[in-house]
Amino acid sequence: MSMRVFASVGLATAIAFASVSPILGQQKQPAASGALKPATAPAKTWTAPRTPWGDPDLQGNYTNKYEQGTPFERPDEFAGRKIEDVKKDELQDILQERQDRALLSITLAGGDPAGNLGGPLWWQDQFEVGKGSRPWLVIDPTDGKIPPMTQDGQRRIAARAAATRATRGGGADSITDRSLYDRCITRGLPGSMMPAIYGNSYDIVQGPGFVAIRYEMVHETRVIPLDGRPHVGQTLKSHMGDARGHWEGNTLVVETTNFRDESIYRNGNPAAMKVIERFTRVSPTRVEWAVTIDDPTTWTRPWTFAMPLTMNDNERIMEYACHEGNRAMENVLSAARADEEAVRKGLKDSTSAVPTAVEGER
User: Fold this and answer.
1) Is residue 308's pLDDT more than 90?
2) Does residue 307 carry a pLDDT above 70?
3) Pairing between strand 210-215 and 221-225?
C-alpha cells in the first residue's frame, strides 16, 4: 500500500537483485528447517506454560507472514484430496514453488517494486513464504472449500452491491468511496490477522480476567474479557465486534458478535454472524489459530480455517502511522480529478478514467 513514504526505486531494485538472485540461482531445496513440522508439541514432555495466576500463557510477539502465499481454499489441483493427504515431501515441493513464484512476482526494475500492492522491498514479507505450514487454510469442510451461500445471502450481497454502485459514482468522488482499509480505519475481524505483504506482527498480552491482542497493521487492539460477562446489546456495534473469551483446557476460545455492516467479513450478515476463534499453544514457539465463521443466513453451514502464529521476538510491532502518511487518499482523489479534466478536454476516454476501489482482503 502507498501509505508510507517510498524510498527510491533504484535502491529498492538493488535490494531486490541482492535478495532474489542468489535464491533463484540455486537448485530446488527443501523449505527451511522446522518449517514443515506439524503443529504439535515437539516433545512428549513439553507442557504449555502458565501465567502466575494459573491461565495458559499465550503471551509473546507473533507473526504469520509465512502463510502469506498459502491459498485460502483448496486449489483445484488437489481436487478430491484432504489436507492431511498432502505428505511432507510433496508439501516441501509446494512450498519451494510458492516461494519461487513470490520472488519472481516482484518487479525488479521501474515503477512500484511491488506492483500495485505498494511498499519498498524491505517492508515486505514475501521472502519467507517457503516456510509455510500447509497447502491451504480451510480445514472444515474437509474438502477445503467455503460452503455454498444461502439464497438469502446471495440476495443480500447482490442488493448491497447494487446500493454501492448507486451511491458511489466512480469510486473516487470522495474518501468515503474508498474501502476502510484504504482509509487506514480497520481491516476488520478476522481480516486484521490475515497475512498481508507487510505488517504481519501481533502481540498477545494477558492479565487476570483479560487477554489483549495488538495488530501492527492499522494498529488496532482488542481487549477480550474472560469473566463470563454477556455480550453488549445489539444496538452497540464496532468494526472489530464485541469479543468474549473463556478457556477450554489450554485453548482460549473467543466469540465475537456485534459487527458493523461496513466491515463485516466476506459480506456476511452483521445481525447473525459469530466469529469463534481458538488460540492453542502447541509448542514453545507456536500458537494454532483456528477461526470458525457461523452465519446461517449467509452460508449453508459453519466453516473453519486455521493457520499458525509463530513466536518471534524479531517481529515486534512497529509504529504504523497510516493516517499520517496516507498519501494514497490524496493521490487517488487528485488522479480522479485529473482524469475528469482530461475527459472534459477530450483527451481521455471516460470508461477508463476513474479508478476502482482497492480490495485486498481475504
Assistant:
1) yes
2) yes
3) antiparallel
The answer to the question of residue 24 being in a domain is yes
Q: For residues 218 and 319, what is the distance between their CA atoms, to the nearest angstrom?
A: 9
CA–CA distance, 76 with 28 (Å, rounded to integer): 24
pLDDT bracket for residue 169 (50, 70, 90): low
Q: Which residues face 304 on adjacent strands? A: 140, 292
State yes or no: pLDDT of 110 exceeds 60.
no
Does residue 272 lie in a domain region? no
Q: Which three cell numbers stand for residue 103?
A: 520472488
Query: Dmax of the chain from CA atoms?
Result: 75
Establish if 3 belongs to a structural domain: no
Domain for residue 128, yes or no? yes
Residues in Cβ contact with 85 at an 8 Å cutoff, skipping those fewer than 6 apart: none
Domain of residue 133 covers: 9-57+78-138
**Which range among 42-51, 167-176, 284-293 shows the weakest confidence by mean pLDDT?**
167-176
Query: Are the C-beta atoms of 242 and 258 separated by less than 8 Å?
Result: yes
Report pTM: 0.78
Cell of 278: 481458538
What span, in angstroms and rounded, lies between the C-alpha atoms of 282 and 297? 34
How buried is 264 (Cβ within 10 angstroms: 0-12 exposed, 13-18 middle, 19+ buried)?
Answer: buried
